[in-house]
Amino acid sequence: MSSLASVYRNTFKGPDGQEDMPYLLTPGPLTTSRSVKHAMLADWGSRDVEFRSVIAEIRSDIKDIAGAGDQYECVLMQGSGTFAIEAALASFAPRGRTPKSLIVMNGAYGQRAAKILDHIGNRAYETINKGDSAAPTAAEVRRALEANRKIEFVFVVHCETTSGIINPIDEVVAVCKAMGKVVMVDAMSSFGAVPLDMGTSGMDIMVSSSNKCIEGVPGFSYVVVKSDLLKASAGNSHSVVLDLFDQWQAMEANGQFRFTPPTHVLVAFHQALKEFKAEGGVAARGRRYQANKDVLVDGMRRMGFETLLEDDVSGPIIQTFLTPGDAKFDFDRFYDALRAHGYAIYPGKLTKRPSFRIGTIGKLDHTVMRGLLRAVRDVLREMGVRDVKPAED
Ligand SMILES: *Cc1c(COP(=O)(O)O)cnc(C)c1O
Q1: Is the CB of 82 under 6 A from ligand 1?
Q2: What pLDDT does 17 receive?
Q3: Which residue of 31, 147, 215, 373 has the fewest C-beta atoms within 10 A of its own C-beta?
Q4: What is the largest CA-CA distance in the chain?
Q5: Is pLDDT above 50 for 200?
Q6: How many domains does the chain have?
Q7: Is the dihedral of CA 349, 355, 360, 363 positive or negative?
């Protein structure tokens, strides 16, 4: 690994607040604006009236962005995104030894939901498993629900960050709601950049976190859920700290978290929301990320790289490239050298083909992507890699 000195040596002048650290081209934590980082230079009291109003505004803004009206609640939870996923699964996945849940998988995050149910115990489930580069279809979900009429609850990921694929969430939710099921969507990596309208679609539960497309720093996650479901979930959780119903009751009663909140993270997120709105909300953020993707994918293809996914399903969040077959290409060296140039990319997570990923979210724009493309060209030259065609399967 390169020493920290070589990272800090980077003199790349970015557009905003990342002058002395590499850009994070990952699915989170992400590069954030200077003003978001600056918001953390104050120590807020968790019980103070100003801080409680920060919490209230965050909860209400998240609902607005989700298209969730009066019949929904927003509950904040300490911890990374998986904490809220586990909290929500514990509250809403039905108990029992015969499967009443369907977990739709096409990558690591669907698998993680199943693992969580295994750990909680007594929450049997069925799966649809599409591997790690194909999208599930609404027809497949319908067939699974028709085959087992006992299923009441469906879990599906919006952007499966393993590959970056965008799943057909509107169609899947429509099938589930037409058949009277409760549907939970892991919208972790898409929320705020890919449109989602809970009220119109009838989506029951949506989960995301502070350090993805709203461009805050890591430390808390959130669940938007229909009020009647939440009220009916009292006593369902196996956990004290992850008990979503208890957390919600405390927030409703006094506007506070039950246990120490990540105050700095919440205040930074509050600032990130202001910047999100000033930029123009979901549409504008989605456009900026799409431009990042277009510049990146186009430039990488010009060099000869191949993407895992077709452009119509790959989404604006993170791009998966197949690793060059050339023996001179060494991913660790490639990674370290790019990092020394000021760009931190991300390893691949596919089970079958060697790959790496480049995130296109965070406080970055197409000029950062162009800088990255120059760095990729330089690093390939340094490594003596002339042909980046992927190895055969
Ligand atoms: C980031 C992410 C999560 C949560 O991961 P954490 O490491 O717990 O923040 C869950 N699902 C998806 C699709 C994600 O991209």
Answers
A1: yes
A2: 56
A3: 147
A4: 63
A5: yes
A6: 2
A7: positive
Nearest to 382 by CA among 339, 329, 343, 346: 329
Nearest-CA residue for ligand 1 atom 6 is 81
Domain stop point among 223, 244, 276: 276
- The structure's pTM equals 0.96
CATH of the domain at 361: 3.90.1150.10
Q: 81 C-alpha to center of ligand 1: Å?
A: 5
Assess whether the C-beta atom of 209 lies below 6 angstroms from ligand 1.
Answer: yes
**Residue 213 sits in the same domain as residue 315:** no
Q: Residue with the nearest Cα to atom 2 of ligand 1?
A: 188
Residue 1: predicted pLDDT: 39
CB of 161 shorter than 6 A to ligand 1: yes
pLDDT tens, residue by residue, 262-305 = 999 999 999 999 999 999 999 999 999 999 999 999 999 999 99
Question: Does residue 175 contact residue 83 with C-beta atoms inside 8 Å?
Answer: no
Q: Supply φ then ψ for residue 349, to 5 degrees.
A: -135, 15
Do 222 and 353 reside in the same domain of the chain?
no
The CB of 191 under 6 Å from ligand 1? The reply is no
* CA dist., res. 257 & res. 164, Å (int): 33
- Residue 120 forms part of a structural domain: yes
Residue 203: give the domain boundaries: 42-276
CA 378 to centroid of ligand 1, rounded, Å: 32
Tell me: pLDDT of 5 over 80. no
